[in-house]
Amino acid sequence: MAIGQYRDDPAEMDDIEREVAAAQYPEGGLVVGLGVGIVLPLVTLEALLFLTPLLGGVVGFALGRRVRDYAIRRRRADRTPGE
Description:
mainly alpha
């Protein structure tokens, strides 16, 4: 997979990418980020109620993408014979 290339079509993915995509790291990060973005302003300031879920969702999705990419790299490194 080329650097910066994002494939979400299972037919284009190899078996490692399909396995990691099935774990839904970006989507899970999005849900956690949205949850934190909703709870945080309720605890602190009501004025942030509109902005923080959006920011939390974006940050959570980006973090999930990083975790997904890390999982793919780790599994590929485990599969590669010792170098």
